[in-house]
Description:
alpha/beta
Amino acid sequence: MRIVIAEDNALLREGIILLLTSSGHEVVADAATGPEVLPALLEHRPDAAVLDVRLPPTFRDEGLRAALAARAELPDLPILVLSQYVEETYAAELLARGAQGIGYLLKDRVGRVDQFLQALERVAAGGTALDPEVVSQLLTRKASARPLQSLTAREREVLEHMAQGKANGTIAAELVVSERAVSKHIGSIFAKLGLEPDDGTVHRRVLAVLAYLEGRNSP
């Protein structure tokens, strides 16, 4: 996989590069500031990009802005965004443009090598990888929405796992229920939220759920 990295912390940037190259990937470019990101992405057109949310010169949202600009120019570009903390506004803005090929992880997940690599590969394949803490805060922020209040505790658990990009079998194993039970919960969730069933692929389920959470399908 050909990857572009944007991270201002030199130690972390080199660590990610070493991790990726030792796993068989190729880092075709790396950037340390916001203005460097979009030109590198347009020049190399990588298979995926790993971008820090906050980059110089202002350390506000340069990485996010670069991600949004890149998706405007390269709509199918998979992007995995890294953040030190949960930035709800930034996560919401990124996901509002569509969840396919998008990931949002906290930086401490990078240290969990297998999880980080799995998330990157899932995003590169067009899926979604959301940090559980990000999902939890997005759900909590919308907890006052009437349709969401109608979900049972188990349905909320299933919804949270769905938004992390997990397949039915994985959800069933983690919740210690049957896969059939998970399917029934998902059907109930879509019905209660007023969302039409889709073709069952993970990224479309996540897109539908996140679209609701961001208010697109609010009654």
